[in-house]
């Protein structure tokens, strides 16, 4: 089964055997048990310390996760010529190795969808064969449940921050014009890594997510790494029954830098393929992204110039993956 064209040593970014000590597993990831009353304070602490945490005891039905996983496997196992008919990712659609429109590449194939557009599915209808409704229904069920959980997390976060009303963040995801995105990433196993004298190929290069919150679920294959404040990369042990949450750039701005969006990346695995599904909760395009006045203490002033999500997104989607996209919007050049 050929899913990607062969890795091209000249172009695909690698982590060199010589220059890379194997990063350690990050075993101290904050684990948030959503059923516990103290979770609101622990979410705030995790966002302040890492911009990243794991969620357990969520109420996303396993059935929705498994259904979407099997639909995704079916799609990614189909012939490349078929999958390419659902591309190019501009930004929505099927993409293969090319990430975004600015020349980034990785050892990954993906489907990127807007969560509120019929158009996506028309694009896929041609390749999804007899029953395109299956994947549409699976995505809808999954995204609806994960969006609900994301809102619960954001409401607990607001409570933990003592902000009223507690739906300040979640209402942006619930808005019918919310500009949220959903992504399925498939990182085929990459057995030829040794040939390139590389420890790992980059599956998805380092970056921060532009939205408010990202909620990721993967199969049991490792690969995700996060950059900690001490400047070291740590591997996140996979856990297929939990979710991993990232603080996005917009939440960084809304908290006036109290939370920092977390840098992360994915390295390929030489033995197993990785499949991840990520919901990126974003605001409506017209929404002004600015620090919440209730979070500003004393004479504290905004670290950021005024901008709408549309303005941010327009510049973000022209940038390279690894760029700090907020620099342009900082008042004092500090982040
Ligand atoms: C290189 C790029 C891909 C990206 C748009 C961008 O120009 C910079 C941000 C990238 C990112 C990262 C998080 C999400 O995966 C994503 C969908 C997003 O909102 O911003 C991707 C964009 C993409 O793949 O088009
Ligand atoms: O696929 C993954 O595990 C993470 C990918 C990611 O960070 C992204 O798509 O923004
Ligand atoms: Fe990401």
From TrEMBL:
Keywords: Iron, Metal-binding, Oxidoreductase, Vitamin C. The keyword Metal-binding applies. Pfam families: 2OG-FeII_Oxy, DIOX_N. Transmembrane segments: none annotated. Residues 177-283 form the Fe2OG dioxygenase domain. Belongs to the iron/ascorbate-dependent oxidoreductase family. This is Gibberellin 2-beta-dioxygenase 1-like. It comes from Solanum pennellii.
